[in-house]
Amino acid sequence: MLDIQLLRKDLAAVALRLASRGVTLDTTRIEQLEASRREIQVRTQDFQARRNQLSKQIGQARGKGLDTEVLMTEVTGLGDGLKAAEERLAGIQEELSALLMTIPNLPHESVPAGKGEQDNQEVRRHGVPRSFPLPALDHVEIGENLDLLDFPTAVKISTSRFVLMRGPLARLHRALTQFMLDTHSQEHGYEEVYVPYLVNADSMRGTGQLPKFEEDLFRLSNGMYLIPTAEVPVTNIVRDEIIPADNLPIRLVAHTPCFRSEAGSYGRDTRGMIRQHQFDKVEMVQFVRPEDSYDALEELTGHAEDILQRLDLPYRVVTLCSGDLGFSAAKTYDLEVWLPGQSTYREISSCSNFEAFQARRMQARYRTEKEGKPGRPELIHTVNGSGLAVGRSLVAVLENYQNADGSVTIPEVLRSYMNGASIIARE
RNA sequence: GGAGAGAUGGCAGAGUGGUCGAAUGCGCCGGAUUCGAAAUCCGGUUUGGUGCUUGCACCAACGGGGGUUCGAAUCCCCCUCUCUCCGCCA
Fold first, then answer.
1. Buried-most residue among A37, A121, A151, A366 (CB within 10 A)?
2. Options A275, A316, A367, A415, the catalytic residue
């Protein structure tokens, strides 16, 4: 959510910055609503002040046994006007806040202008894609040849866009998860947290999934939602909290399954594990002081990159252009891993600074200090990123570590999680 | 699933129709005292919003929503959540 003050003060500038995301702001409508809000709110509060004053006088008069008829007559006369003003004000504020909830975040000044994916800017590359004597297989062929990856059975049990993994492959998937969690919690300074996978609508509103993107979510019959990312439960830990300044920054990491309905991506990535309704992810979240959030974004992106480097997977870092930014993000780096089976880089992590956008929705604040004295609560900044998407990491390992005989070498750093094994081969 | 109790400030806890945004205690902040500290004493200490003369005024909020009333933390209705006991259960 944007700061309503900013819209009041400089609506044209806000509209301009949103235009770079391809979003058109109805400035006329906002100006109209603001003008009437202002007028009606002042009138309503005047009514309320008068009523409070009179009611207080009635109470005092009764206490002294005096006659209250004159006072009663005046206060009764306020009734209709007050009620009408209150109702109109409520209506306007509801409309304003509903509108405000659908406006995306403003891109940071360092974000390149652009319409879509093609305008994203590559920042750096790391690692060199390995060359294969024969055309590299994709993860589906590799996994199915090993009899460890089973899509048909997953479809039987559930439906399309689900997967069944067996034996050493299932274990490799778990090994990746453990490795990521251990690295972030033991070496990068994150506290590991275990969180609910079902959340309420307030939490979804807090991080920005609702009200605009309900169709991307799985909603349960009791009104709760399956999380599309650990970002939702982890970030909402600080909803409606005032954090002592000394506690910042807070760094949290969680592993969760993620559920996405993938409405609107029919026909995209239908083959394989790239785009599933259910996948696992390790997510890093940081709560920081506003002045620190861009440093935190660089740091957190580095933590995600460290996982790729330790797995020795080639990747590149891309800055999303204004038109490709997610709803809540002010700036995003995507990490794209090299997939030999597709001969292309594919997103494996997304690291974003949301500035105060989520914090404002959540009322997540910290207590500032001024010359040693406690100051006013101010909104924190939230930063998060995948570290990494586990399913896609597995895909990357299979494709980058495949051997000519159909086996797959296990990356060094995962072997301790695989009972010392160095290879996955057909039995 | 059944029965009962409850939800008030950072915490504990009072308040059942009127000067209550809320007693009291604890905590926290500042000051006094002290060589320093403890103890003690004094003062301060919720959040969101609006207006303008930017320092003041006003509005709203006692789990959430609605109602009664001139006036609601207090009365009524609905919802949510928490706790206790029983049942079930990893």
1. A366
2. A275
Type of residue at A127: G
ipTM of the predicted assembly exceeds 0.90: no
The H or E element containing residue A150 is strand A149-150
Q: What is the residue-averaged pLDDT of chain A?
A: 94
Residue type, A285: V
CB-CB contact of A144 with A272 (8 Å): no
Round and report the angstrom distance from CA (A315) to C1' (B39).
64
Q: pLDDT (tens digit, 9 = 90+) per residue, A281-337?
A: 999 999 999 999 999 999 999 999 999 999 999 999 999 999 999 999 999 999 999
pLDDT at A373: 67
Chain B bases closer than 7 angstroms to a protein Cβ: 18-19, 28-30, 47-51, 58-60, 70-71
Residue A371 has pLDDT above 70, yes or no: no
Cα separation of A357 and A319, whole Å?
19
d(CA A111, CA A109): 5
d(CA A282, CA A185): 11
Q: Provide the angle, in degrees to the nearest 10, between the axes of the packed helices A293-310 and A167-186.
A: 140
A364 pLDDT exceeds 70? yes
Four-point Cα dihedral A337, A340, A346, A349, nearest 10: -30
Strands of A239-380 (E only): list them: 242-244, 250-259, 278-288, 315-319, 331-339, 344-355, 365-370, 373-379
The Å distance, CA of A89 to C1' of B58, is 16
Residues within 7 Å (Cβ) of strand B: A 4-5, 38, 41-42, 44-46, 48-49, 51-56, 58-60, 62-63, 72, 75-76, 79, 242, 363, 365, 372-374, 376-377
Q: How far is CA A90 from the centre of its chain?
A: 30
The DSSP secondary-structure symbol of A112 reads P
SS3 for A142?
helix
Question: For the segment A44-73, what is each residue's pLDDT rounded down to a tens digit?
Answer: 999 999 999 999 899 888 877 778 788 888
The alpha carbons of chain A give a radius of gyration, in whole angstroms, of: 27
**Tokens (6 digits) for A160:** 């399309």
Closest nucleotide to the alpha carbon of A363, via C1':
B48
Which helix (H) or strand (E) is A125 found in, with range? strand A121-126
Question: How does residue A370 score in pLDDT terms, banded at 50, 70 and 90?
Answer: low
The mean pLDDT value for A104-108 works out to 97
